[in-house]
Amino acid sequence: MIKTEKVLHLKSSRGRKVRVVREHYLREHVPCYSSLCQAQCANAEGKVLSGEVTHYVMPDAGVARDFMEILEFREIQGIVFTQTACQAVQHSRGRRQYNRLRSLLKDPRHHCILFANEFQEYSYCPREKGEPQYKWQTRCVYHAAVWYHDHLAGLKPVVMITEDQTAVAEYSSLNCGVYVLCTQEYLQTFWPELQAALELYCSIAQSLQEKGSEGTEREYTEHLPAEVLEAGIKSGRYIQGTLNVNKHRAQHEAFVRFEGSSNKSSELNSDVLVCGGRNRNRAVHGDMVAVELLPKGEWRGRTTALTEGQGEEKGDETQSQPMATGRVVGILQRNWRDYVVTFPPKEETQSQSRNSQRILATPWDQRIPKIRISTQQADKLQDHRVIVRLDSWDSTSLYPNGHSVRVLGRAGELETEVQTILIENCIHVPPFSEAQLGEMPVSSPESPWSVDPAEVITRRDLRQTHLVFSVDPLGCEDVDDTLSIRSLPPGPRGERLELGVHIADVTHFVKEGSLTDLEARARATTYYLADRRYDMLPAVLSADLCSLLGGVDRYAMSVMWDLDAQTLAVNKVWYGRTLIQSSYQLYYELAQALLNGEEAEVPELAQLPPGERDAKLAQLTQALETLTHVARQLRAQRDKGGALELEGVEVRAQLDEDRNITALVPRQPLEVHETVAECMIYANHWVARKIQESFPQQALLRHHPPPRQEFFNQLQDSARARGFTIDTRSNKALADSLDRAVDPRDPLVNRLLRVMATMAMSNALYFSTGACPVDQYYHYGLALDRYTHFTSPIRRYADMIVHRLLTAAIAMEKGAGPAKALASNKELEEVAQQINNKNRAAQHAQKVSTELFQCLYFREKDPETDERCVADAVIYTIRANGMLVFIPQYGLKGAVYLKNREGQVVSERQDGGCDWQTGSLQRYLDRITTTTAAGTSTFNLFQHITVRISVQLSRCHSDTIRLEVVSNRPHQAPETQVQTSQPQGARGRSQLVQEVVRQAEEASQQAEEKRGRASKLSEEEREFRQSKCPNLYSLLEEVRELALLDLAACGAGGGGLGAAAQACATSA
Ligand SMILES: [Zn+2]
Fold first, then answer.
1. Helices 1032-1043/414-424 angle, 10° precision
2. Whether 854 contacts 890, CB under 8 Å
3. Are 661 and 886 in contact (CB under 8 A)?
4. Is the pLDDT assigned to residue 205 strictly greater than 70?
5. Could you tell me the distance, in angstroms and rounded to a whole number, from the CA of residue 39 to the centre of ligand 1?
6. 38 C-alpha vs ligand 1 centroid, how far in Å?
7. Helix extents (H) in 573-609
8. What is the pLDDT of residue 809?
9. Residue 212: pLDDT above 90?
10. 37 CA distance to ligand 1 centroid (A)?
11. Which residues make Cβ contacts (< 8 Å) with residue 988, sequence separation at least 6?
12. Closest Cα partner for 343 from 325, 364, 323, 328?
């Protein structure tokens, strides 16, 4: 090892230049991390570059700094990042960008490695006196490239890419086998099919170029340097927190939610209000900022009007009590993500581009400011939705600067809108890569997968001994769970039963740390949108090898309870890996029919002779009956503890983050739903006990914190309006009082009350046992002291973690250590938070996509003439200037305003119809009244009224549904429309989805034909589409059948299509 000195010139955050001398050690052996290594490098630790590429590519410091996004394309393989380039990123782009690079280097899905060139004795070159830093860095990277090429004995060409033309001229002909190209030429030569990368390159390059020609006039106050902010936060002068923009008043109102201990001033116990753009000082929604409070005389109040939807009423804008108000003095951390924007129509772009190439694009998310984008394709991009990234926001610029990343398509088209929803929720679900699919076992008609005899002997074989079956929605493909029940020989304490829950053994196929595992972890869940789903695991697992289909051998993870037949006291529990063969793949309606003793055909028995068939049928029915009996008792035990009916299948409400209902799913009266759900809850509970006992500091559990009492106010007020009392002192009291709050005339009342109770709940969340005190493990909704997710590993990553923990616990019991070190409490807690975030994103995306479909459905209809735009609605909340209603027919909720901008109010005519007239409005707890010259109209809580549904179109944001009162009476459906006694939220919605999908397909077909006729039109399409991206229609066609989100068919907790369970905020 050689010791030298390395001189660094750093800039302090105050702008002072500092000269630092560091000892620098050079070594002869620095791992090259190439599989072509000829020198026995110590490459064992970490990723290794495959030799199966045409060349290796080495970006210089400038490329790594400015064009890292290009290098993030997974298609670009064989990237060698030098230490020099990495340090350049670290020093000039900050921690966030550097962390991004580090995770890229760590992620096995990306084909890139780090070469520590500056520690390599022969590739290191010290900086020469007077040599500019960028020159020296480029020279370092070039030397590294030459060394690397020689080190691999010339087996692989190495291409250095740089933006420095003089470097290209200087180096490109020096060494054979080492090429020097500029980035654009490199992309064009080596990745011609990767059009998206080239487009992104041009977009970034353009943006960098424009940045050089910025104005100098200051629009905002400069941010304070980091050290000043830090000291100010410590002393309590500044407050640290996350900026939250009010969606409905995005230009004017934002709040800073403070974090941790930053709040020194004790009088401050709320958010800090930030009014207007100047005070917000370039902070973007989600950024971590430092704020300084304004003098008390300048404090303002927050706006308290009904701010839902578009119909904000000026007259009702009242300001509340003045609150702490401040201004942003600095940004501690930018939390920018990818944003979808819409390019303005032609008229606007022309006026803008007269002076410059810059276009102001409007983000889909109303909380994000307009973004200035430099592009030469403004004409072609008009009215398109485009993904952009923010680059900078200088004090001289009114708007932030960004660059476009990818074109999604024309605004308003179904595919564009769905992709927008995914991007806006940070959901990345690219098709599974070749490498990922390469890890999958083969299973095809030619070579079907079969069990491995070596594996079989390690498992408990239940194929001959246990009658195993599944109960799922009809047509379910991914069968996560199966059940068994049988009598055991009587023990000393009497009759015994054995209940078994057998879950797909996903972790047998997905090894921890494999590419498939990393992808599943990143997704965290299967995503269900209104018309499609994106699986967490490749189909060969989710629909085949892991799916516990009938009549085939499958690996399972089982929990089996030895129970006292009378009391259900647990004598013994067995956990372990098994081999099963499910005898029946039942669906809910069929299982219930068997239980009811109705005539029903079991497909598995159809071919048998009558005698045998009857015997088997009797055996199956007996098993279902015993199971029902057991589940009833288990349920009764939980009820005693205070379990809430909300969790079960009675009501499913989809909620958004503000606890608004987005949909109500009617109760399915099938008891078998509850039976299956109860068994799954039981299994989850016992696995939770097991892993928590084995790993008290690092097990993954799921808790449901008790709700805050004030959230119940609305529920209690509403119930009181109907003469019911809701006791919220405990979950048991709540459950009992909800059971009593039944209006025999209108079953919807009880359902809406339950929904309100659900809205008051907090979300159930995953956590690591070491990160939370034991008394907070409790699951309020299920009334269980410990709970986790074990029963759906095909569509939830949490369950995969739990399977691994259970496997480790079993191994530990047998005296063996875990095969792989368990995640520490800290690591596990991080993963838990990641999964919680992804679940929230999944819920939100599902909600927004449902709204999208509702809008697409009604957009095509004339609200004045189309019968379908008029519907019955129930008032469930009273607000200051209107009310919130639920429309059972479409599973739709929204605000109905009773007062408009002109100050007119809705007034009822003699015939029950409604008009707008000048008048006043009075709000009460249980009703809202309007008074006009014509008289007084009253709208009561839980009253049925008739509303007209229309769509408020928006070019840049999502369209929204508008509701207006047609009549103060229930809707009289036209004779032709078949009315059923049961509200059909779910069915209505799935029909709605189907119709919209059909329309979109027709439209796309027509567009296709049109393109065929006039091929000129497709030029633009060709230019902006990603060549690598497969046609979404073809991709999704195969899953569409399944993906139609029929919530009515969704089973409880363990159901196959668990969209409802996923969407339900308090899903077990
Ligand atoms: Zn080597």
1. 80
2. yes
3. yes
4. yes
5. 5
6. 6
7. 588-595
8. 95
9. no
10. 4
11. 888, 889, 890, 891
12. 364
CA distance 941 to 878: 7
Q: How far is the CA of 4 from the centre of ligand 1 (A)?
A: 23
**What is the DSSP track for 120-189?**
BTTT--PPPTT--HHHHHHHHHHHHHHHHHHHTTTSS-EEEEES-HHHHHHHTTTSTTEEEEEHHHHHHH
Closest CA to 779 of 697, 685, 890: 685
What is the pLDDT at residue 663? 41
Could you tell me which residues are beta bridge partners of residue 79? Answer: 57, 112
- Measured between its terminal Cα atoms, the distance across the chain in Å is 59
- Residue 667: pLDDT band (50, 70, 90) is very low
DSSP β-ladder status, 371-374 and 401-410:
parallel
Average pLDDT on 934-960 reads: 90
- Give strand pairing partners of 221: none
Q: Ligand 1 centroid vs 29 CA: distance in angstroms?
A: 8
Distance, CA 157 to ligand 1 centroid (Å)?
Answer: 15
How many Å lie between the centroid of ligand 1 and the Cα of residue 32? 4
* Residue 776 CA, distance from chain mean position: 25
Ligand 1 midpoint to CA 30 (Å):
8
The rounded distance, in Å, linking the Cα atoms of 327 and 880 is 31
Nearest CA to 69 out of 434, 550, 431, 406 is that of 406
Rg (CA), the chain: 32
- For residue 263, pLDDT over 90 is answered with no
Highest mean pLDDT among 177-191, 466-480, 758-772, 881-895: 177-191
Confidence tier at 10 by pLDDT (50, 70, 90) = low
Q: Ligand 1 centroid to 40 CA: how many Å?
A: 6
What pTM did the predictor assign? 0.79
Q: Starting from the edge strand earliest in sequence, which strands make up the sheet with 272-275, in order?
A: 272-275, 253-258, 238-245, 288-293, 326-333
Give φ, ψ of 163 to 5 degrees.
-100, 0
Q: Name the DSSP class of 552.
A: S
In this prediction, residue 1009 carries a pLDDT of 65
For residue 207, the CA-to-ligand 1 centroid distance in Å is: 39
CA of 150 to the centre of ligand 1 (A): 10
Distance in Å, CA 43 to ligand 1 centroid? 7
Distance 33 CA to ligand 1 centre (A): 6
Q: How far is the CA of 206 from the centre of ligand 1 (A)?
A: 38
Q: Tokens for 725?
A: 């009392």
Q: How far is the CA of 41 from the centre of ligand 1 (A)?
A: 4
Alpha carbons 772 and 785: distance in angstroms, whole number: 13
List Cα–Cα distances, 817 to 790, 820, 822, in angstroms. 22, 8, 10
Residue environment code for 581-598, b if the CB has 16+ CB neighbours within 10 A, otherwise e:
bbbbbbbbbbbbbbbeee
Confidence of residue 787 (pLDDT cuts 50, 70, 90): very high
Q: How confident is the model at residue 311 (pLDDT cuts 50, 70, 90)?
A: very low
Segment 695-721, tens digit of pLDDT: 999 999 999 888 888 778 878 888 888
Cα separation, 1024 vs 1003, in Å, equals 20
pLDDT band at 349 (very low <50, low <70, confident <90, very high): low
Q: CA 635, CA 640: separation in Å to the nearest integer?
A: 9
Distance 28 CA to ligand 1 centre (A): 11
The two tokens of residue 222 are: 């400069």
Ligand 1 centroid–CA 113 distance in Å is: 12
Strands (E), 220-365: 238-245, 253-258, 272-275, 288-293, 326-333, 339-342, 358-363
- Helices 133-151/83-106 angle, 10° precision: 60
d(CA 584, ligand 1 centre) in Å? 56
Paired tokens of 859: 């957009």
Q: Cα of 83 to ligand 1 centre, how many Å? A: 16
DSSP 375: -
Q: From the centroid of its chain, how far is CA 450?
A: 35
